[in-house]
């Protein structure tokens, strides 16, 4: 199993040269324009000291060839935080749109597409020499309000087919992989009770993969799930699902493990789990890694967090079929965690002032150690 090579070697060289310039220019531009504030609290602009890469290097600079180190991108950070674009460009060689490519955001009314948010991320990624991972085509969340659960199955199926086809076709050749279905399993491992399952039956999963394959035969197609990083019952069910789909000829190329983790309760045997999926002949990827700690964060909490980040990276690097480790945002300034997990936060590699945390140092250290030993 070879790792994906979404960027050419020449492209990466050019990109690496451009990154240094981008970091400097992004910082200068942001400072120079004094970006306007956003009164919306979480959307407010933040000022932070200029970012300078660690003397130890950057994540993308130390990543082994063929392994992508990515991050989710939040346009609020991109447009409001002076330090954000520079860190994004310097540290990561892959990006995922955190929200911009979700159906609700892409098609606010039937047939009217709002590509600007996703396009901004894709265009910036091209300038930064970053691969783009598409997120997400079929999900039970962020379905536009105009899609009615009362429609007959045939109409719902057609509208879903049109959505998958339009989005994959729009980004054809610019997105190397897609989360085709996201979070299709319930906690007990059965297919999750969603609008799609209720109205279209279990075949909607296979249909979505086939539609996506047709719209871009070169994009790698993933199923993406949470709570399956270790050897859980849900992971067993996911393994079974992927095995059955592939046996039926459904074009499932990869399995994404989200990795929304708690520093106090890390998953067990991530490496072994990734390996058993890889043995099915698919790629695997850590798609949404963050490691939350109880607030206020303590030095001990951040130390444990660093160990969990490092362990997940190790697991991926040890499995040849593991294409990427993507963090779900890189700064505590823009993380979804405090809004969803009460009492928790500080889940990212950089703090809210864009200072690298012990977890960032741990990842650099792991990557550097592998370089030294060639492992
Ligand atoms: O777009 C509005 C914005 O106009 C408004 O100012 C703001 C006020 O709060 O709300 C904005 O939308 C929110 C959006 O995040 C951007 O902040 C949505 O209400 C909110 O629901 C949305 O949450 C996202 C969530 O998915 C649901 O789509 C999170 O940012 C995002 O991190 C989270 O990501 C998911 C993955 O897609 C799938 N796996 C789990 C992961 C974490 O829940």
UniProtKB/TrEMBL annotation:
EC number in record: 3.2.1.8
Transmembrane domains' residue ranges: none
Pfam families associated with the record: Glyco_hydro_10
Keyword Metal-binding (UniProt): no
Enzyme active site: 288 (nucleophile)
Single GO MF descriptor: endo-1,4-beta-xylanase activity
GO term, biological process aspect, one: xylan catabolic process
Reactions the enzyme catalyzes: Endohydrolysis of (1->4)-beta-D-xylosidic linkages in xylans
Keyword Repressor: no
Domain GH10, chain residue ranges per copy: 56-366
Keywords: Carbohydrate metabolism, Glycosidase, Hydrolase, Polysaccharide degradation, Signal, Xylan degradation
Record-stated family: Belongs to the glycosyl hydrolase 10 (cellulase F) family.
Protein name, per record: Beta-xylanase
Organism: Micromonospora haikouensis
């Amino acid at each position: 199993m070879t790792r994906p090579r979404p960027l050419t070697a020449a492209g990466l060289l050019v990109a690496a040269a451009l990154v240094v310039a981008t970091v400097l220019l992004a910082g200068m531009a942001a400072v120079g324009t004094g970006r306007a504030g956003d009164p919306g609290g979480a959307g407010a602009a933040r000022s932070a000291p200029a970012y300078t890469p660690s003397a130890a290097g950057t994540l993308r600079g130390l990543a082994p060839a063929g392994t992508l180190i990515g991050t989710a991108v939040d346009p609020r950070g991109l447009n409001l935080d002076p330090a954000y674009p520079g860190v994004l460009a310097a540290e990561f060689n892959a990006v995922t749109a955190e929200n911009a490519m979700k159906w609700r955001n892409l098609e606010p009314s039937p047939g009217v597409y709002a590509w600007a948010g996703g396009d901004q991320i894709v265009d910036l990624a091209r300038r930064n020499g970053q691969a783009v991972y598409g997120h997400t085509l079929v999900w039970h969340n962020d379905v536009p309000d105009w899609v009615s659960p009362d429609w007959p199955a045939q109409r719902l199926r057609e509208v879903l087919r049109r959505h998958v086809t339009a989005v994959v076709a729009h980004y054809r050749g610019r997105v190397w992989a897609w989360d085709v279905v996201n979070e299709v399993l319930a906690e007990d491992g059965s297919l999750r009770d969603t609008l799609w399952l209720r109205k279209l039956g279990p075949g909607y999963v296979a249909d979505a993969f086939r539609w996506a394959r047709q719209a871009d035969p070169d994009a790698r197609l993933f199923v993406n799930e949470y709570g399956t990083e270790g050897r859980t019952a849900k992971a067993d069910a996911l393994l079974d699902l992927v095995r059955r789909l592939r046996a039926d000829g459904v074009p499932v190329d990869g399995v994404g493990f989200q990795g929304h983790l708690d520093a106090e309760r890390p998953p067990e045997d991530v490496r072994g789990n990734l390996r058993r999926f890889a043995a099915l002949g698919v790629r695997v990827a850590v798609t949404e890694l963050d490691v939350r700690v109880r607030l206020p964060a303590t030095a001990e909490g951040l130390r444990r967090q660093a160990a969990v980040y490092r362990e997940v990276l190790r697991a991926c690097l040890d499995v040849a079929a593991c294409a990427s480790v993507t963090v779900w945002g890189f700064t505590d300034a823009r993380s979804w965690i405090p809004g969803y997990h009460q009492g928790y936060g500080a889940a990212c590699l950089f703090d809210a002032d864009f200072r690298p945390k012990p977890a960032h140092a741990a990842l650099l250290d792991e990557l550097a150690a592998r370089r030294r030993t060639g492992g």
